[in-house]
Amino acid sequence: IWQIYEGGDETGYTIHQIDSGIDTGNILLVDVYPIKFEKNLKQTVEKNLKTARNKIPLAFVEVCKKYELLSKTSINQEIGKKYTNPTWKEYLIMKKNNNLMFKKMSKFVKIFE
Fold this sequence. Notes:
Layout (H helix, E strand, L loop, with lengths): L1 H4 L4 E7 L10 E8 L6 H25 L1 H6 L15 H24 L2
Antiparallel strand pairs: 1-2
C-alpha cells in the first residue's frame, strides 16, 4: 500500500537472503507488476494481495531451484525508506491516491473499449 501512498502504479516483492538484520540481506529475486486499482482502497489492497499470494510460492520454488546461481548474482539492498503502519493522515492520502488512479485507469480503459 505504500506504493499507492507514493503515487506509484506498480508494486511487487523481493525474496532476499536472510542475514542478521531485518530485511537487509542481498536480493535474490525481484518481481514488479502493475497495481490493479479498484473502486476503493480496501478492494485494491485485497486484489493485489491475492496477486502476490499467487505469485510468491512460484517465485520461492524458482529461488530454491536456482539458489546457487541467484546467490552468486544477488544484489545488495540499497538503504531506502523504512515503512511502518500508516498514520491516519497517510491512510487518507492512500485513499485519495487510490481514487485518483482508479478514475485515471477507468478513463484509459474506456478509450480502448
